[in-house]
Amino acid sequence: MSIQAPPAAKASLEFPGSLVLAGAGKMGDALLRGWLARGLTGPQMVVFEPAPSPELQALTAAQAIRLNPAISDIQDAAVLVLAVKPQVMPDVLPQFQPLAVRGALVLSIAAGKPVSFLEQYFAGAPIVRAMPNTPAAIGLGMSVLFANSRVTPAKQDLAGGLLGAVGEVAWIADESLMDAVTAVSGSGPAYVFLLIEALAKAGEKAGLDSELSYLLARQTVSGAAALAAQPDHPAATLRENVTSPGGTTAAALEVLMRADGLQSLMDEAVLAATRRSRELAK
Ligand SMILES: NC(=O)c1ccc[n+]([C@@H]2O[C@H](COP(=O)([O-])OP(=O)(O)OC[C@H]3O[C@@H](n4cnc5c(N)ncnc54)[C@H](OP(=O)(O)O)[C@@H]3O)[C@@H](O)[C@H]2O)c1
């Protein structure tokens, strides 16, 4: 596995044709805004969205992004990004086949849809399957990518650059790991939100009013995450640095780190999500 750093704030994406986005819902919209922020221009982009929101209509009009044109009008698609719900894919994908036939890289972010499923619609095409997560909406996403054998290094750079525009990118060579990836980074933001909720509720039980307790919990989690995001700051070292023997943190960690504590719960949670991801893929 290799980690690719996110592009620097001002880095521009080089793009050899049109970028076609199918589906501008939560994740598609986050990607679109990330690409615009990284210097892709509206005329390079095409968006397909059956019921565009007023915000999307305003954005596409202001940026001169083509919205729902005829597929036959797109002759230079370099990448087709599939950001529709997995369950609608069998109905949606056939209309986009001509783009892949004309040489576009297919980049799917649909959860639980393997490359073998996509190859039924885009036979012979270079295909990248990716699992992003929702912090992509603020440029802090984590995306894991898998490429089929038809993806050239140049196309791999293209896919990595597109998802690198909204956060960090890692590649896997074994597609079966995508279920575990989904369980860790795809679903992971929800575990962290739960941690904030649980810490806030515990603070209330310790006597704080709910508003103050929520503020303390939220700011502590985001501050600690920012510290852990610095290079050369492993979480274990940061934890040890704030834990004096016999102190308050040590008293709490003794509870959280006991045999049936946080690690065992987290193991169980990630296994449950991995199993569910496998079931959904069937
Ligand atoms: N959200 C996440 O945390 C997350 C994380 C990783 C991966 N993903 C993947 O990202 C994909 C999108 O998820 P999402 O959360 O962004 O879902 P979403 O908000 O429902 O977005 C999907 C969008 O696709 C549109 N759509 C439906 N049919 C279409 C068609 N024929 N052509 C073009 N667009 C069409 C939908 O429009 P209508 O609403 O009008 O049907 C909707 O706006 C999914 O495959 C999901 O597995 C999501």
List the helices and strands and how they pair.
Elements: E1 2-4, E2 18-22, H1 26-37, E3 45-48, H2 54-63, E4 66-67, E5 77-82, H3 89-92, H4 97-101, E6 105-108, H5 115-121, E7 127-131, E8 141-147, H6 153-164, E9 167-171, H7 178-186, H8 188-205, H9 210-228, H10 235-241, H11 248-256, H12 262-281
Parallel strand pairs: 2-3, 2-5, 3-4, 5-6, 6-7, 8-9
Antiparallel strand pairs: 1-9, 7-8
Structure description:
- This protein has 282 residues and is α/β, with parallel strands linked by helices.
- It folds into two domains: 177 residues, NAD(P)-binding Rossmann-like Domain (Rossmann fold), CATH 3.40.50.720; 94 residues, ProC C-terminal domain-like (ProC C-terminal domain-like fold).
- The chain is built from twelve helices and nine strands.
- It has a nine-stranded mixed sheet, with helices on both faces.
- The longest helix is centred in the C-terminal third of the chain and has 20 residues.
- The radius of gyration is 21 Å and the shape is elongated.
- The relative contact order is 0.11.
- The N terminus is likely disordered.
- It binds NADP nicotinamide-adenine-dinucleotide phosphate.
- The site of NADP nicotinamide-adenine-dinucleotide phosphate has 25 residues, from helix 1.
